[in-house]
Amino acid sequence: MDHSDADRFFRSMIEFNVPDPIGSLYVNSFKKQLRGSTSKDEKGQENERIVDIICYCVNPNHFHFILRQVSDRGIEKFMQRIGTGYTMYFNNRYERSGALFQGKFKAIHVDTNEYLLRLSSYVNLNFRVHRYGVQALPLIRSSWDEYLGKSNKQYCEKDVILGQLRHPSEYADFSEDALIGILERKLMEKALLME
């Protein structure tokens, strides 16, 4: 609905990506203030991740991730925590109840490198695939700028993609070409449905 909601979802992606449940982000923020804002847990050890985030796009009404599972059932735990935590936040904030997300999350195993490259373009540029209006753009969070080196944030494990190329501009060119193909396919599918 607004920047706070978008930022809260994004914060969930980062803070829920740990082996042990942290409970409420709100309560956890006070614990962090007491022990200092570091990536260390209460015992002073570096926090481990349950998934590597390869790329992401969080749109106003849906999101996409490419994740690499690091721990047993990591993707399942990560998605459950985000879904539950964000639904509780959203329902509390807007005084509503019930499900926020439609059904279970959908997961597809990426089994070839070519599929990985094309899918990363689709995910990183998903906000352009759906052609959101200017009003929605401030609410979108995507790893696209991180991939192009235009962001100081380093949330993604980009080497699996960018390590195959000489320069991020190569990835930008590849992704822009892939986007053209994706948009053409969408138009063709729409035309076929209208026949």
Characterise the protein shown here.
This protein has 195 residues and is mainly alpha-helical. The protein has one domain (3-194). Helices cover 49% and strands 9% of the residues. It is built from eight helices and three strands; from the N terminus they run H-H-E-E-H-H-H-E-H-H-H. Strand 1 (51-58) and strand 2 (63-69) form a beta hairpin. Helix 1 (3-15) runs antiparallel to helix 3 (74-93) and helix 4 crosses helix 8 (168-194).
SSE layout and pairings?
Blueprint: H1 3-15, H2 25-35, E1 51-58, E2 63-69, H3 74-93, H4 113-124, H5 126-129, E3 141-142, H6 144-148, H7 159-162, H8 168-194
Antiparallel strand pairs: 1-2, 1-3
Q: How many β-strand stretches?
A: 3
Mean pLDDT: 87
| β-strand amount | 5-15%
Count, helices: 8
The helix-strand sequence is HHEEHHHEHHH
| pLDDT < 50 runs, ≥5 residues | 33-45
Number of domains: 1
Protein name: Transposase IS200-like domain-containing protein
GO biological process, one term: DNA transposition
Pfam family, one: Y1_Tnp
InterPro entries: Transposase_17, Transposase_17_sf
Descriptive labels:
single chain, 195 residues, mainly alpha, 3-stranded antiparallel beta sheet, 8 helices, 3 strands, 49% helix
Would you summarize the structure shown here?
Helix content is 49%, strand content 9%.
